[in-house]
Design a protein that fits this description.
single chain; alpha+beta; three-stranded antiparallel β-sheet; 11 helices
């Protein structure tokens, strides 16, 4: 029995030495140290030994077990060290090499323009208001002095969802909703930026979806000169102190009187060029004094309150300020175009 144990020890140590992977070592462990292994079978025959031989063979069996276990563990550590070294060689990184550049994004040009305009008007005491993009016919038209059948509705070819619901064609409904919310009890001084939708054919200057910012100031004793002062400050802050403005008579159903505002052309300084079509002026927004009908429908007494309203397109402002020649550039997500204005 002693010879058998020594023989098993030699066999096991030889197989451990020849093992090339952890799975090979596991096979050796199961084969020699498992419950059905030859060492266990030898120990089962100890009952036939004399009492003097049993402790000697038992001690030898434990010694053999420990020798095989130690050899397996040592070889396992060696194989793991070899494998680790191999992986380190394969996955070696030269930390002295320059890293790959990471592109840093920035706000969209329209977002920057809208935020810049918001900051300007917040500085003049205006608050920011928002409203739904899916609007009712009442707030989009009727509350703004555009009853059903009014010819001016044809100026805004609309996306109707139902007979009474549509995608808003301007942000003016937010003005009507705000005045109605205040119920004629307090002044209103607000701007409302947001997306609007019209059934326009997309080209260099038109889009079926675009952005609009409208402003409203309702209080007692508001004058047209107040509107001009606000717009003059806005133009000089946004385009430069050397810009001049002019107001021309116009028509909008929700304002009376109504005006269009032009700014002097920055390209020619007012002398006339191809950008301003030889006039020296560029149209930028519309506005006027709030129509009494609009005030009355919103709950304001037009004999006590009056005010002014205006509306502008951030896309047009961005095109003028940064020389963009096609409105579609804002919506095609071309990184080559957008990245030019990250630091604008």
């Amino acid at each position: 029995m002693r010879e058998r144990l020594e023989e098993l020890k030699a066999e096991a140590l030889e197989k451990v030495e020849k093992a090339y992977s952890p799975s090979d070592l596991q096979d050796v462990k199961v084969a020699y140290l498992g419950k059905k292994g030859p060492i266990t079978e030898v120990l089962r025959g100890m009952g036939k030994l004399s009492q003097e031989e049993r402790p000697i063979i038992g001690e030898l069996a434990n010694t053999v077990r420990e020798a095989i276990t130690e050899a397996i563990e040592t070889k396992k550590n060696t194989l793991e060290a070899i494998e680790l070294e191999r992986k380190l060689q394969e996955e070696a990184i030269d930390v002295t090499l320059p890293g790959r550049p990471v592109s840093v994004g920035g706000p969209h040009l329209l977002t920057k323009i809208v935020e810049e305009i918001e900051d300007l008007f917040i500085g003049m005491g205006f608050e920011i208001r928002e409203g739904p993009e899916v609007e009712t016919d009442y707030y989009n038209f009727e509350a703004l002095n555009l009853p059903k059948g009014h010819p001016a509705r044809d100026m805004q070819d609309s996306f109707y969802i139902t007979e009474d619901l549509l995608l808003r064609t301007h942000t003016s409904p937010v003005q009507a909703r705000t005045m109605e919310e205040y119920k004629g009890s307090r002044p209103v001084k607000m701007i409302c930026p947001g997306k609007v939708y019209r059934r326009d054919t997309d080209d260099a200057t038109h889009s079926h979806q675009f952005t609009q910012i409208e402003g409203l100031y309702v209080d007692k004793n508001v004058r047209m000169s107040d509107l001009k002062g606000v717009l003059n400050h806005f133009a000089k802050q946004l385009f430069g102190e050397d810009r001049e403005i002019r107001l021309r008579p116009s028509f909008f159903p929700f304002t009376e009187p109504s005006v269009e505002m032009d700014i002097s052309c920055k390209v020619c300084g007012g002398d006339g060029c191809s950008v301003c079509k030889g006039t020296g002026w560029i149209e930028i927004l519309g506005g006027g004094m709030v129509h009494p009908n609009v005030l009355e429908m919103a709950g304001y007494d037009p004999k006590v309150y009056n005010g002014f309203a205006f509306g502008m397109g951030p896309e047009r402002i961005a095109m003028l300020k940064y020389g963009v020649d096609d409105i579609r550039h804002f919506y095609t997500n071309d990184v080559r175009f957008l990245s030019q204005y990250h630091n604008a």
